[in-house]
Amino acid sequence: MSKANISIDYDDRLDHIRIIRHALLIGLDSYGEIERIINAVDIRELYGKEVAGNLKPKSPTAGDSGEAIGEFAQALRLLELMEREVSEMHNQ
Description:
Layout: H1 10-46, H2 65-91
Helix pairs in contact: 1-2
């Protein structure tokens, strides 16, 4: 497999980082909303109020929310590191 010479300028790199960060924040916000709805369904059921199965949201992490939040945080930290490195390279 040959490697192509791809050159991305400073502004493009920063734009790519911002786009990825924005997408991660949308995902994190959506994840939080799903968890909020799951909790509301659980509370209703705790008080004996049935919720139809087709109205119950499925957890995107299959119940491992702590790890999912950690992965979002790690991805955001890596973007911060990448942004810092891009800025340092640009300032040299």
